[in-house]
Design goal:
Layout lengths: L4 E7 L6 H14 L3 E6 L2 H4 L8 H7 L6 H6 L5 H13 L3 E6 L2 H9 L5 E3 L7 H9 L4 E4 L5 H13 L7 E6 L13 H10 L2 E6 L5 H9 L3 E5 L17 H17 L10 H4 L2 H4 L2 E4 L14 E4 L10 H4 L21
Parallel strand pairs: 1-2, 1-8, 2-3, 4-5, 5-6, 6-7, 7-8
Antiparallel strand pairs: 9-10
Amino acid sequence: MTKVFIIAEAGVNHNGDLEKAKKMIKVAAEAGADVVKFQTFKAEKLVSSSAKKAQYQQNNIGETDESQFNMLKKLELPYDWHQELIDYAKTHNIQFASTGFDEESVDFLANLGQSFFKIPSGEITNLPYLQHIASKNKPTILSTGMANLEEITEAVEVLLNEGLTKENITVLHCNTEYPTPMEDVNLKAMLHIEQVLQVKIGYSDHTLGIEVPIAATALGATVIEKHFTLDRTLPGPDHLASLEPTELKAMIQGIRNIEKALSGNGIKSPSKSESKNKIIARKSILLNKDLVAGTIIKKEDLEIKRPGNGISPMKINEVIGKELKTDKPNETILQWGDLK
């Protein structure tokens, strides 16, 4: 099994604080994530002044100000922080990445040498943006929250028409509600995407807890993305639906354990670790009384008990009727050499 690529999504949970952003990088690295990902945008290019917050944003923040612009302006990741954060990530042996929400931000990230691009769910119907991402000719991850299969197919076709290959496209099943109710996860839709589009699949999770990303791994996700925070009680739109550091570490450990569990050859046979227990757990054919040489073995002379280092009970019909070569005491574990 190919190693699952785990994205620890810092998003905007740095709350506009450089030191919080650095601490998030350290937390993601210590948890074992492959990459820590932020969001790069200019509020002026992302949202109009009249746009209102989503209901979950309003609920999570609790402010009376309904302006999405004012909220996002406070959550920008300034361009001049990026290189410092990239360098800081290198010192902690984790990859830095960010989602660019407009063409200018994508160009900025490309110039910084970002190795892959992430298309957020809200941009799946943004044709110029999709074309611009594809023009970078880098591995591309597409989130599909709020989208139906037709919209996903159309977006993938745009990427392919602009020169990306299917090998460079991973489609993430996703639900854009923070937090996502379990009954709305519809995890098998990830497999439907794979079946129809013949692309690599993954899962971007917004549920509470860690079970669903681990389940997605078991179903074949190649990429897992999960929001995390330093503290769920911090103000901001995404903290409440994010994992805290210990939970992030537990999720990643769970995913890595599932990888190990799926790494076998798929052929049922005793494993190296369990083979030593075969003699202890299985049973053999034993005598239930003292018998003398020349006795013809009858069913009532036998019993079946542990350990399993004698003749298998599966062969009992072959033992019955055989002649005993030598005297044997009660509870003798029979071997084929004891019989004529």
